[in-house]
Design brief:
This protein has 95 helices and seven strands. The strands form three sheets. It has a three-stranded antiparallel beta sheet with strand order 1-2-5, with helices on one face. A two-stranded antiparallel sheet has the order 3-4.
């Protein structure tokens, strides 16, 4: 199994959230696929898993990995298809995420995103969808805008304007018309054309065309010509899809009148009025001079004034306002003597009615009488204007037929006939334009008026009356008019009939056609829902563009959510009682002969003939045989109908013999239960006879069983419908009574899910309960009782008109059958689902609901808004009456406006009306059920909750009753968002919130599984800190319920949003539940308080008594017991006494560095987060003794004070332990600072000064992490509202500055100046003054921040201004006039204030004889110039940094600070450096800002030196080059961290620029030591990899500078050092070296990235190796390669080679190039590689392999046979003769030994080696090789050999051999190739020796002298060896090997040297990333690390050299060099 498969397998065990957010993309991808599969498998939209998955998608869709994002979209699509509208709560965030991340992705991703949007629309989340689209179209990338327009286009075209409101689309389009992208413009045109199809061309033109450019207008005009027809929706929302089968079946069954679907599916007529924004005209009217104009004497001025009103009112929609005065004015003007003015006024009224509509209702009624009266005028213009205005008033809804009745009655009695006729004409118009429901209500009022007018003497009036009656008849039919028309004579009847013209028959045709249309559309909708998502482009609407069809995206069709439509005949019968059945339900006639012919041989002919017999016994025998033969038939399905038909004919249902009857019923039961499909025809054939068998007591049991079997076969709905008619019409009363009893059993068996309850209840009421037979009534009562068990008490609402006696019996029966709800599970199931019945009933809630939309009239709604409270009250009562008439079961249709009106009544001024409204809303909720959630849009719920804020208890009780009713209808989870918001609403009042908490607690106490309760955690937690005790108590009760239901784990996970004291209380409440469990004993847990002295001012000690927790979380009362003198009385628990023997602090396992590495460095204070508090509690529990951490973590402040006293008393004895856990203590102090308990805070402030004093006495300096923990809080809380606390904090802050650093503290203080707390700003301003006065030099680099202080002078608060002025005055005292450079831009007033204060300060200084402002600073500057050179002599000294806090990284090579120089340093760092040495010191010790000045000087000096390379300036600079680069390398870290903490990147740029200038000159670059180069290259590569650098100011420029600098270093630095450093860096880096903790990647990944960069650098060096091969020290490079390979080991090398490891491959490449360039001569450069060690060094094998490979490729000419090398492993097994003589090889070896002797660092070992050769080969004349050497060198060798001989006689080892003098260096031809000394002579005092390398020495002899090879025991090269074991080993090896030297072989000396070499090359086995080479007790860091470990004999591989001999050797070497060597 591969690693990926293992990873995926392990990941599947993780929770969903962890899998979906896993760092590995493959895991996330797999999780998304699984999530989609799970969603596909969910069939119940209420499945709780859907609620769990909902919050995930916001993050999933933002995945950066494109394939994962695509799978996330698949999962979202599957989720949306499985869910219902309840998931709309996630719509906004998910849609926003899709817009932000998915619309710019791959085409497939965009398609799936569009499909997801369409599903959101289907789930009714249209608002969230359109809001997201508004954001999408504002995207700057056109690629993202086009899909957004396309998906809006598709949503509109598929769902229509009923679902997708066109108003929002119209608002979005204008800004798209001018888009710069042509595709966006084309798509916007397409969307516009689609809008035209839905709402018409004219509304679109009028709204949009004025906002278009002319060019686009012309283009759209041309396209509009192609738009024709009206659009119809092709897709339904999910809730309508679920209702589709019910609607279709209803239309099949009922068939009378249009179905509801007809109304829903007809194209929605969009009113242009709703699409436009209202225009406010009253203000412009006032400004136009209207009021003055209408009072003018001239008619023309009056007309102009009214014309202005007409013009303003001509807008399509007018904003509502108070037009009362305008109408009163117009009423006067209508009667104006000038007709033109009157006409203008009438037209203005018409415009007002069209623009205001219903908002003009009251004014219209006010003006109507005068308008009707004015109809008497004879002027046609005025009459026409009046007619149009009256029509407009009705058409716009200002007036309706009910409102105008009284005015019409008055008008038709007017004396002027013209008024009467025109009034009736207007009434006719109103009737023709009204709906049928309105006419049905009003026709009773108008028919008498018209009948009366038929007798009018004026023909025009009579004709108008006839027209009105005809209009009424056309709308409602003739039946309502029959009684009234009976009074008419025949002539008038005939005329009326002619006017009606037979149009009364037309309406009857409408429903059928509409129904057909509806069913057709419904089918297409269902079919459309099964089709996969097909992407359509809006641009396809344009001419010449074809619609884009893409491949289907969604595999799962919507058909899974709805039942497929069943094809039927579509026809239906007119009677309701007879259900419409398909053709194959009614059985056709079939003769006996035909039945027998179809039977064939299925039944024996004798059996059939016997069934016809007249003898009952024969018939009985035959029927038994028939039964046996039937049971023997295996497959009954083909023969079911013919067998049933036969039994119905012979013996038939008229059989008199009971036994035969029983057998017949049994056979039919067997057939019905056995056949897989039992046709309904067969049921129809048997049902009548079976009902008669039920009535017979002898066959009743079998017949009832058979009927039950029929129900299982075809469904109970069909059986019930057929039985209703049979039982109703049958003459035998037993059929009815016993049939009802069977219905009882059937309901109990099958439930009500497949039954039409309305038909059953009507049958019970009309037939069963009305029966005269008691048995029938009793059976009916039983049936209703059983229905009550399934339906509940709501069924009683349908029985309100039943007799009282029956009602009491019904109530008694209902009590016997209590409502069981969902727990009432049916006992039997139906084989084949009866779709017609099962879906029509509506499931459990199958009781019929009435549509009350027609009863909610405009009059009712206006009554609810009426100014008269009595009318409002009557309207509310009318609503209650309507609900009562509907049996408290109503449909949500048309109730939207009603809820809107009731909502406004919740804010009524009359409190009684509010309570009545609340009761009415409760009634509506109970009557409507779950549908109220969507009907009311739940917005009304927030208004209901606001009523709890009333002071009256009665009002609050009424509100809670309404909430109970709402809860009964809607589940609590729907109410949670509104309730949670109300709980935090302070306007609710304490009593209201307390009542709401109590109500919630009651509801939750009845629940066991309600995960949404967690949403109420935050309000309940925050209310637990409320001022009101009642609220706190109620909130705590609710919290307990939440904890019980959700569990401790879920509550703990959701604490992140709770902060402050509320969080502390919650955590305290969680402790008994195990979340933060304290180790208390089961019994009474008592804690003890240890006494201590309060402070130096108080001599007496206080002892706090027992504070035991007696009852749960309640704390028992305590009192303090005082003591006299030193006597202390301690009351301690047994547990605490046992703990006294333990240490108070246990810091054994503490790792402070790891904790501090996790601290986020911020200057601004932020309260501790939940996870930080949990970490703190964990740390306290881990490191603090149990009794102490229990007190510190207690919620009781008194216990906390006890804990502080324990620490205070023990502080002198636990100083070091306190320092180790100081960061934990500081975090705890921060928690206490954030709480409001003053007693605990004062105790903390009493303890902290003592703690700081202790730290100062210990010489401890607070770390930057500790400062970042504590200082932000201390600064922020320094503005406490209690003066005493402020004083203590002020003193504490000054102590902290003294202990930490003024420069480091200053940024925290500056952040405090930005605090919102005014007192904090004042304190910080004073603190800045204190810093300036006492630490001015140290903070001088940050003086620009004084402008923040200066800005406070503009504050309104006088204290803040005063503090700022005082601080700036101190600054003026120190800086003088220079302070104006630092205060920034100020207003004239601020400058004037400052100037006055500065003058005052100067006068004060003069009085006190303190000199003039700024003089002290100038004096310091002068003294620095005189004395500053002393400090410049220092090198390598690192001062304490004064930079801002940075990341805690290990410092390499930092030494002690010379503190006596710091004041001078601080002084000249404030004034700027004056020369090179000052500049270097400032760079080394100053903050990043301060060091910039030093770098400027350095750059200047470097430029001068570079300009004159041969001058003395260059020499001086070269001397300090290493020091300069070392300082700059360390400054890189500080500069970058400084910038990352919010400062500018100026210091970073200066550091990199200075380094660039340094490394541009090869002379300077070569002067940099290897250790410094290592540190610099490491830092540069680390910052190149840091993810935060690109986010800095000018981050890209910094990255470029880092790259260029790296290239300069590689080009100009010493090549050998570069190679060695880079090869060493290929090993894993120490984690502490990284600039920041890993964010999302492991250390392995970071090291891999680092190695990749190192490899790139090595590649650059290797490319030019051919030209630089003679400039590098091959010995050192091969040594570094050897160390690298040995560090890896062979196992790791094989593993990496298989994985194609880049670092290893790079090392091999370097080695290959070296071998290729040097050939076999490479072997001569292995002087630093221990080639004789066992096992053999790995590098030797690689050199052999490269030599063989290159020789085979003829790329080099070897000096000897390939593979035969000079090391022993190869010669031992090589029998080939040597190609060169032994003498030549010996000569070569002697030359190498002389070279070692010539180097003072290897001279002793070289002499010993030479001595051994002289002992083994006395015939060899070594001095023959020294003919060219000086006499001094020859004498040195002669003396050295003599000394070696003496040492050998004394038995001393080579390492302890004293030499009289070091050798001259004449044999070293080039210092470039000289090996480095293995002896570190002065590692502690000499600052220049940090670059010293200790290299192991090897001895190489020619192979010709190695005739015999014997393995010896050697010390492991990786293990440490003690001195004694090494001596013993050397002695043993000497004894073993010396006697074996025979016949001139060199085996003995080889083995001896091998032992010495292995001992000298011991490698430190500690788990460090860089190995240490140990020689003579000193540890050298071969990789550039600057740490030192001297005099460590346990880690030394060889005995230390005699110090006297070593010093003597050095002295003689110096004399030899100077030419004063004294020959002895």
């Amino acid at each position: 199994m591969s690693e990926d498969e293992k990873l995926l397998k392990e990941a599947k065990k993780l929770p969903w959230e962890d899998r979906l957010t896993h760092k590995n993309w493959k895991v996330r991808n797999d999780a998304n696929i699984d999530l989609a599969a799970v969603c596909d498998s969910i069939s119940d939209p209420k499945d709780p898993r859907l609620r769990e998955f909902g919050p995930f998608f916001k993050k999933l869709l933002a995945d950066s990995n494109a394939p994962v994002q695509e799978k996330a979209l698949d999962a979202l699509i599957a989720f949306l298809r499985a869910a219902d509208a309840d998931v709309g709560r996630y719509a906004k965030e998910v849609c926003d995420a899709i817009v932000a991340k998915c619309l710019t992705g791959r085409p497939k991703t965009v398609e799936k995103a569009q499909a997801a949007f369409m599903l959101w629309v289907e789930l009714e989340a249209v608002d969230a969808f359109l809001d997201a689209m508004e954001k999408a179209i504002k995207n700057k990338v056109a690629k993202a805008v086009v899909p957004a327009i396309d998906v809006m286009f598709q949503a509109l075209s598929e769902f229509g304007t009923k679902i997708v409101p066109p108003k929002k689309l119209l608002k979005m389009l204008p800004e798209l018309f001018d888009h710069q992208d042509q595709n966006v413009r084309a798509s916007s045109k397409g969307l516009t054309l689609e809008l035209c199809r839905w709402i018409g061309k004219e509304p679109v033109k009028s709204i949009l065309f004025e906002k278009m450019r002319d060019t686009m207008k012309k283009e759209l005009e041309a396209e509009l010509a192609n738009v024709s027809g009206t659009a119809k929706p092709t897709r339904k929302i999910r809730s309508e899809q679920d209702k589709e089968p019910e609607v279709e079946n209803a239309s099949e069954v009922v068939g009378a009148g249009p179905a509801e679907g007809t109304v829903d599916d007809t194209p929605l007529e969009i009113d242009e009025y709703e699409l436009v924004d209202p225009v406010e005209i009253l203000t412009p009217l006032d400004k136009s001079g209207f009021w003055e104009g209408v009072k003018a004497a001239k008619w023309s001025e009056r007309k102009e004034a009214v014309a202005e009103l007409t013009k303003l009112a001509s807008t399509k929609r007018i904003a509502p306002g108070d037009f009362t005065e305008v109408c009163r004015t117009l009423k006067k003007i209508i009667t104006d003597v000038n007709i033109a003015v009157a006409v203008e006024a009438v037209q203005a009224l018409g415009n007002l009615s069209r623009g205001l509509r219903t908002h003009f209702s009251s004014n219209s009624r006010f003006l109507l009488p005068i308008l009707l009266e004015k109809l008497k005028e004879k002027k046609p213009t005025l009459v026409e204007a009046l007619t149009l205005t009256l029509q407009a008033m009705h058409q716009s809804g200002c007036l309706n037929l009910t409102d105008i009745v009284e005015d019409v009655k008055t008008a038709v009695k007017n004396k002027v006939p013209h008024v009467r006729s025109l009034t009736l004409n207007w009434v006719t118009y109103c009737i023709e334009t009204s709906n049928r429901a309105a006419i049905l209500k009003a026709h009773k009022e108008y028919v008498p008026i018209c009948m009366e007018c038929l007798n009018d003497g004026t023909p025009e009036v009579r004709d108008a009356a006839f027209s009105a009656l005809a209009s009424i008849a056309k709308m409602v039919g003739m039946r309502p008019l029959e009684k009234s028309l009976e009074k008419l004579d025949d002539v008038r009847k005939k005329k009326l009939a002619e006017m009606i013209g037979g149009s009364t028959a037309d309406p009857s045709n409408v429903p059928s056609s509409a129904a057909n249309l509806s069913s057709g559309r419904s089918l297409s909708s269902t079919e459309a829902s099964d089709v996969s998502f097909v992407r359509r482009s809006a641009a396809s609407m344009l001419s010449g563009k074809k619609p884009i069809h893409t491949a289907p995206v969604i595999k799962k069709g919507t058909s899974s959510k709805s039942v497929s439509t069943k094809k039927g005949d579509g026809g239906g019968q007119s009677k309701v009682s007879k259900p419409a059945e398909p053709d194959d339900v009614e059985p056709a006639e079939m003769s006996l002969e035909e039945i027998e012919s179809r039977l064939g041989s299925l039944i024996q002919s004798d059996t059939i003939s016997q069934l016809k017999s007249a003898v009952w016994k024969e018939r009985l025998e035959a029927i038994v045989s028939f039964k046996e033969q039937t049971e023997a038939i295996i497959d009954l399905n083909p023969s079911v109908e013919v067998l049933i038909r036969l039994l119905c004919v012979v013996p038939g249902w008229n059989e008199k013999n009971v036994q035969v009857q029983q057998q017949i019923v049994d056979i039919i039961t067997h057939i019905a239960s056995t056949a897989s499909k039992f046709p309904k025809k067969c049921v129809v054939l048997c049902l009548l006879g079976m009902s008669e068998r039920v009535a017979d007591i002898k066959t009743r049991a079998q017949a009832m069983k058979c009927l039950t079997t029929f129900c299982e076969a075809v469904g109970p709905g069909f059986i019930f419908e057929r039985l209703y008619k049979i039982m109703k019409e049958h003459k035998n009363p037993k059929v009815l009574s016993e049939g009802l009893l069977w219905l009882v059993s059937a309901v109990e068996d099958f439930g009500i899910s497949c039954i039409k309850l309305k038909d059953l209840i009507d049958f019970c009421k009309d037939i069963g309960l009305q029966s005269s037979a008691a048995a029938t009534r009793n059976a009916t009562i039983k049936l209703i009782g059983v229905l009550h068990k399934f339906v509940g008490p709501d069924i009683k609402g349908f029985l309100s008109d039943v007799k009282p006696a029956l009602l009491s019996a019904l109530d008694a029966e209902c009590e016997k059958n209590p409502f069981e709800g969902t727990s009432a599970v049916p006992k039997k199931t139906v084989k084949v689902t009866d779709a017609a019945s099962s879906l029509a009933s509506g499931g459990v809630d199958g009781l019929p609901r009435e549509d009350i939309s027609e009863k909610i009239t405009p009059t009712l709604l206006k009554g609810l808004e009426c100014s008269d409270w009595k009318i409002r009250f009557e309207s509310i009562e009318s609503v209650n009456k309507i609900v009562e008439e509907a049996n408290r079961r109503i449909q949500p249709t048309g109730t939207g406006e009603l809820f809107g009106a009731l909502r406004s009544r919740l804010h009524d001024s009359n409190k009684n009306l509010i309570m009545t409204t609340l009761s009415t809303i409760g009634v509506l909720a109970s009557a409507m059920g779950q549908a109220i959630e969507k009907s009311s849009k739940q917005g009304i719920l927030s208004d209901i909750l606001k009523c709890l804020g009333d002071n009256k208890k009665q009002m609050r009780e009424c509100t809670l009753s309404t909430l109970d009713a709402w809860l009964a209808a809607v589940h609590l989870d729907k109410m949670v968002p509104y309730v949670s918001a109300a709980l935090t609403d302070t306007k609710l009042g304490a009593e209201g919130r307390k009542d709401l908490f109590d109500w919630l607690s009651r509801q939750l106490s009845e629940s066991t599984n309600f995960p949404d309760a967690i949403h109420m955690l935050k309000p309940s937690a925050s209310s637990m800190t409320d001022k009101s005790a009642d609220v706190r108590k109620a909130a705590e009760t609710l919290f307990g319920e939440i904890l019980r239901i959700c569990g401790q784990e879920m509550v703990t996970k959701n604490l992140r949003d709770i902060q402050g004291s509320a969080l502390a209380i919650v955590i305290e409440r969680l402790k008994p539940h195990g979340a933060f469990q304290e180790s208390f004993e089961p019994g009474r847990a008592a804690s003890s308080g240890l006494t201590s002295k309060n402070s130096s001012k108080v001599g007496k000690a206080n002892v706090h008594g027992d504070r035991a927790s007696r009852h749960g979380n309640k704390t028992a009362p305590t009192r303090a017991l005082s003591t006299k003198g030193s006597r202390q009385e301690l009351i301690m628990s047994v547990q605490d006494i046992n703990l006294q023997s333990q240490a108070l602090l246990n810091v054994k396992d503490s790792n402070k560095d790891d904790r501090e590495r996790m601290v986020v460095r911020r200057f601004k204070f932020e309260e501790l987060r939940l996870e930080q508090i949990q970490d703190l509690e964990s740390d306290l529990t881990r490191y603090f003794r149990e009794d102490l951490h229990r007190r510190l973590l207690s919620a009781d402040f008194k216990k906390q004070v006890d804990g502080i006293e324990m620490l205070q008393k023990a502080l002198p004895s636990i100083r070091m332990e306190v320092i180790e856990v100081l960061d934990i203590l500081l975090k705890w102090f921060v928690m206490r600072f954030c709480e409001s308990n003053t007693s605990c805070l004062l105790k903390v402030l009493e303890f902290l000064p003592e703690l700081v004093d202790m730290l100062k006495n210990e010489g401890y300096t607070m770390t930057e992490a500790e400062a970042a923990i504590f200082l932000p809080c201390l600064v922020e809380k320094s503005g406490h509202n209690i003066e005493k606390v402020r004083e203590k904090m002020r003193e504490l802050m000054k102590q902290m500055i003294h202990m930490y650093s003024a420069a480091k503290t200053f940024p925290y203080v500056l952040e405090g100046l930005r605090s919102r707390n005014n007192r904090t700003r004042i304190e910080c301003a004073d603190l800045v003054g204190f810093l300036l006065d006492n630490y001015g030099a140290e903070i001088s680099g940050q003086l620009k921040s004084l402008q923040i202080v200066a800005s406070l002078t503009a504050e309104r608060d006088g204290d803040a201004r005063k503090a700022a002025l005082n601080t700036l005055a101190i600054g003026y005292k120190i800086l003088g006039e220079d302070i104006w450079r630092y205060v920034g831009k100020l207003t004239e007033a601020q400058r004037s204030m400052l100037d006055d204060r500065f003058k005052w300060k100067a006068r004060e200084m003069d009085k006190r004889k303190e000199g003039r402002p700024g003089e002290a600073r100038a004096a310091i500057r002068r003294s620095v110039r005189d004395n500053g050179s002393d400090l410049a002599e220092q090198s390598g000294v690192v001062a304490r940094s004064v930079a801002v806090p940075m990341l805690n990284r290990e410092s390499y090579g930092h030494l002690e600070v010379q503190t006596d120089k710091l004041p001078i340093l601080q002084a000249y760092s404030s004034m700027g450096p004056t020369d090179w040495n000052e500049a270097l010191d400032i760079i080394a010790y100053g903050s990043p800002d301060q060091s910039v000045e030093g770098m400027k000087v350095v750059c200047h000096e470097l430029a001068h030196a570079t300009a004159d390379p041969e001058g003395s300036g260059m020499g001086d600079v070269v001397k300090d080059a290493d020091r300069l680069v070392s300082c700059l390398a360390k400054k890189i870290v500080k500069a970058f961290d400084f910038s990352l903490n919010g400062a500018s990147s100026r210091s970073c740029k200066y550091v990199l620029n200075t380094l660039m200038q340094t490394f541009q000159t090869k002379t300077l670059a070569h002067a940099v030591k290897e250790s410094t180069l290592d540190s610099l290259i490491t830092e540069l590569l680390l910052w190149l990899l840091d993810e935060r650098v690109p986010q800095m100011d000018d981050g890209s420029q910094l990255l470029r500078a880092l790259n260029i600098l790296m290239f300069k270093i590689l080009d100009n630095a010493d090549r050998t050092s570069s190679f060695v450093v880079l090869i060493n860096l290929l090993l894993p880096l120490d984690p502490s070296r990284w600039p920041s903790p890993a964010a999302n990647e492991s250390l392995v990944i970071r090291n891999q990235k680092f190695s990749d960069l190192v490899v790139k650098c090595l590649i650059k060096l290797t490319k030019v190796l051919q030209s630089t091969i003679y400039d590098i020290d091959l010995d050192r490079i091969l040594q570094s390669i050897h160390i690298y390979l040995q560090e890896l080991g062979m196992d790791e090398i094989r593993k990496r080679a298989g994985a194609d490891d880049k670092p290893l491959r790079m090392v091999k490449t370097v080695m290959h190039e070296l071998v290729k360039l040097r050939g076999t001569a490479i072997k001569g450069h292995l002087s630093l590689v221990p080639i004789d060690m066992l096992p053999q060094p790995i590098i030797l094998a690689y050199i052999d392999l490269n030599l063989q490979t290159l020789a085979a490729a003829r790329m080099l000419t070897p000096s000897g046979p390939v593979g035969q090398t000079h090391w022993t492993d190869s010669t031992a097994n090589n029998s080939a003769p040597a190609t060169h003589s032994a003498d030549a090889q010996l000569k070569q070896e002697l030359a190498a030994i002389f070279k070692k002797i010539g180097d003072k660092q290897t001279s002793s070992i070289g002499l010993y080696e030479l001595y051994r050769i002289t002992q083994l080969y006395p015939q060899v004349d070594i001095f023959a090789q020294l003919q060219n050497a000086s006499n001094a060198f020859r004498t040195y060798i002669r003396d050295g050999l003599a000394q070696m001989e003496r040492n050998a006689a004394a038995g001393r080892t080579p390492s302890s051999v004293p030499l009289s003098t070091p050798p001259p260096v004449t044999l070293n031809p080039s210092p470039r190739f000289g090996a480095l000394s293995p002896v570190n002579t002065n590692s502690l005092s000499d600052s220049t020796n940090t670059n010293t390398r200790i290299e192991p020495t090897s001895f190489t002899l020619p192979p010709s002298y190695a005739e015999d090879h014997r393995p010896v025991n050697t010390v492991s090269p990786r293990g440490p060896t003690s001195d004694q074991s090494l001596i013993q080993h050397l002695d043993e090896s000497r004894n073993d090997t010396l006697p074996s030297v025979t016949n001139g072989t060199l085996d003995a000396i080889r083995e001896r040297m091998k032992s010495i070499q292995l001992a000298a090359a011991q490698v430190n086995p500690e788990p460090r990333n860089r190995p240490l080479v140990q020689v003579n007790g000193n540890i050298s860091h071969p990789y550039g690390a600057e740490g030192h470990s001297a005099n460590n004999p346990t880690q030394s591989g060889i005995l230390p050299m005699d110090e006297k001999a070593l010093s003597g050797l050095q002295a003689r070497m110096e004399r030899l060099k100077s030419g004063s060597f004294d020959f002895m």
